[in-house]
Amino acid sequence: MLYLALLLGIVFIVITDKLTQAFKLSGIWVVLGQICAALAISIVGNLSVSHITIGNTFELGYLTIPFTILFLVGFTNVINLEKVHNPSILLLPIVSFVCLSILAYIMGNLFVVIIGFCSCLVMLSILLYSYFSGKVIVGRTLTTTIGFIIAVLSLSLIKASIVNIYIPIFTLALPFTLYYWMKDKFTSVYAITVSVVTAIVFSVLMFIVPFYMLWYFVVGLTILLVITQSSRKYRII
Of 38, 59, 36, 60, nearest to 47 (Cα)? Predict the structure, then answer.
């Protein structure tokens, strides 16, 4: 049922995004479509986080559905781009998919392995097509769909340990933030190169550094990021 729920969620996102663009509707409809997609994953796919394990186990109780929706909708919009001039930006989600697939293989999560591997092939196909044809077919609908798939796969692994939130944050969110910050200050190629290298470095760290240290790393850098955003001098978001 999880495969069906993922397909249903993608359909919700694509339809609402296309209708919003065609009829120039308010962006709230896009968000509502994403919430429906998240509910499909939670209800139809029976995938939600009812507890968080960080050494001890913490039950979420009534916060299970809200947490699941917030997580899915949040990461769905991490790589939400209206128009992409350089399709090489797809290298960022490819790194995330590879990272998710390898970890899922180690953990024995077949769903994430299959979807992650297939998504990698699709991203590579789009990248190669854009490169050889000269046509850029990467837009908001595709990037939002990619974000949604990564969010669902990450949520599947987070059921085992909240530390796995490291993957979408440091192989997608942080590199994409760097790209977004650099793209107007440097060339697009330079911005993408730095972002991809950052994603690869952080993905390699995940297989070297113990998980308990990664958790301190996630919390520490997140707190530092929040503090720096209070100053215009260091603001990157």
Answer: 38
Average the pLDDT over 8-29 and give the result.
87
**Percent of the chain at pLDDT exceeding 70:** 86
Q: CA-CA-CA-CA torsion for 109, 163, 142, 229, nearest 10 degrees?
A: 180
* Helix locations, the chain, DSSP H: 2-23, 28-39, 64-76, 91-107, 110-133, 140-158, 166-168, 174-182, 188-206, 211-228
Contacts of 228 (CB under 8 A, 6+ apart): 234, 235, 236
This prediction has a pTM of 0.86
> Which one, of 129, 145, 158, 192, lies nearest residue 48 by Cα?
158
Of 46-50, 88-92, 98-102, 125-129, the one with minimum mean pLDDT is: 46-50
Whether residue 215 contacts residue 195, with contact meaning beta carbons closer than 8 Å, is answered with no
Q: How far apart are CA 160 and CA 80, in angstroms?
A: 27
